[in-house]
Amino acid sequence: MAYPQTRMRRLRASAGLRGLVRETELRAGQLVAPMFVSQDGPPHEPIATMPGVERLSISAAVAHAREAGALGIGAVMLFGVPAEKDEHGSGAWDEEGVVQLATRAIKQALPDGPLVITDVCLCEYSDHGHCGVLRDDGAVDNDATVELLARTAVSHARAGADLVAPSDMMDGRVGTIRAELDGEGFADTPILAYSAKFASAFYGPFRDAAGSTPAFGDRRSYQLDPANGREAVREALLDVQEGADMVMVKPALAYGDLIGAIKRATCLPLAAYNVSGEYAMVKAAAAAGYLDERAAVLEILTSLRRAGADTIITYHALDAARWLAAEAL
Question: Annotated catalytic, 197?
Fold first, then answer.
């Protein structure tokens, strides 16, 4: 029936009515808190381009994970900042590497705490900043890189990682990682694949935090063109065929259409990565008084859930969890 019998505003008239018919739920348990863990640095080292985010020592990372768990956050995600780098990124699969040490420390201190997800890539560990081994012509060698990524994933699983998350965008890496995990006795370790990772302008603060800016060139030869939606769906479907347990869209804010499309195409749990540049934009606007940070963040995170994300990786995770808890009182 049309107006005046149908009045859409009836169910918006009070907070109770709005809550009764709310379509999308946002919970702390759906959030993942990324952490930059430093092997050779102070306990807390502020990151200028990411206000409120710090590089953490291993002991500080344990404390941060404990706080995240107390707030009901579902998982933490570890990115390593190694003391040394080399051309092959060998620190990535070092059994005494920073992510391996941090994973063991967190799992030992917090056996019932948040899940530990580990980023599987070589960019933070290579002296050239690219996500893989370089050929003589400077291009990334896909197949040689895949073997090292699988070795890295196994080392993370051995350290106790609950999920491993390859972020490199090499062809075939999910299948190789799955085979290596299974062969080494880690058949139950899930893979969260960065299936649709775009060559985005929104990664700058992360590269500052992790020291992973490429020394030359860019990553457009392996990360997705932001203009290509169908290609992103195809990438995700290939990861499903290779054994991915979850898929990811990164960045998140400008890619809501692909969050929905990939969720529908794969029928797998989907994570959206609310990346560093998206975080920094909100922080800068809030600092300037242009918007209400709390309201903007919760609106953004809710929109990602509405688009189809089951899990959201966000640097606002701890603040968002506190805000959600306050709303529930």
Answer: yes
